[in-house]
Amino acid sequence: MKHTFVFIDKVLIILKDVPKSLDTPEKKEHAHKIVRDLESYTRTLKKIIHSHKQEEYRQRLHNIHLAGAPELAGKVDALIKKFDSLLVILERDAEVLKDTIENSPEKWVSRIGDLAFDMVMTGLHQMQAEMTEEDKEIERFKQMALFEMHELEELVDSAEHISDILQ
User: Fold this and answer.
1) Which of 93, 99, 105, 113 has a CA-to-CA distance to 54 between 20 and 30 Å?
2) What's the pLDDT tens digit per position in 126-159?
3) 59, part of any domain
4) Number of domains in the chain
5) Rounded to an integer, what distance in angstroms lies between the CA atom of residue 54 and that of residue 24?
6) Residue 167 domain flag
């Protein structure tokens, strides 16, 4: 789970550095780079999330000896559904953003805002100063590393993304 959240955080980080408008070729190129990065992280997330659904990794989660892990193991299905929702959002919005850059650049800020809001609505990150019980559960999932390094290297085909995990 820990590795999944690394890439969710990476998506949030790239969304913090978006141009406010697309009124110059440089800003459009920067927007294209953001979309390419978004698509790249989405592909990596998709592979990792798909792997979480495999029985071998579900069993590992049940066997993790972190405080509270047994009660969290029963909540994996709900978390996987949130991950699936996030993938739908990222894949859909990457296409919308590409179209916006080329055909409706005046709607760029609004479309980026839609993506950010949709990500918030998944509940997969914490934005409040005071964490709810659900936020605390998410934080505990963030500490669970289910994959061995060699397994991650098989899943993640980007050297840059492997580097992100190691940081």
Assistant:
1) 93
2) 543 344 666 666 666 666 555 566 676 777 777 7
3) yes
4) 1
5) 46
6) no
